[in-house]
Write a structure and sequence with these properties.
Blueprint (H helix, E strand, L loop, with lengths): L7 E4 L3 H12 L2 E5 L4 E5 L8 E4 L14 E3 L3 H10 L3 E9 L3 E7 L5 E7 L2
Parallel strand pairs: 1-4, 5-8
Antiparallel strand pairs: 2-3, 3-4, 6-7, 7-8
């Protein structure tokens, strides 16, 4: 039996900007909790994993190059949305035989993420 992912966090220099980027593209619901200086992210969908976006309380390097895959129904449509919102595509589309296909992109802060479309 494995250990499932149950939460994720993005460390950000500008949490409001990064939150707006992900809300615009994926329709995530992001609630700012000012007293904790934290943004709670509800990704929605069945089986989705929720997370948070925050600005670290100290200066210095943080392990911020986090990669996770976001399930979408059309890779091309989401690549266009990402570019329009200020992101950059690094892998247009690559097939994983028998499983699906993916694209890789970076958000406006250079954080690498993946789009995933399951095989039909």
């Amino acid at each position: 039996m494995g250990s499932p992912v149950v939460h994720w966090e993005l460390m950000s220099k500008d949490p409001a900007k990064v939150s707006a980027f992900y809300e615009k593209i994926f329709d995530w619901k992001i609630q700012h909790i000012p007293e904790n200086d934290y943004r709670l992210v509800e990704t929605g969908g069945e089986g989705g994993i929720n997370g948070g976006i925050l600005k670290p309380q100290r200066e210095g390097p943080w392990p911020g190059n986090m990669l996770f895959y976001i399930d979408v129904d059309d890779l091309a449509v989401y690549r266009k949305k990402i570019i329009a919102a200020g992101g950059e595509i690094h892998v247009e589309e690559q097939e994983v035989p028998g499983m699906g296909a993916f694209s890789l992109f970076t958000d406006p802060e250079g954080r690498m993420m993946g789009l995933w479309k399951r095989a039909q």
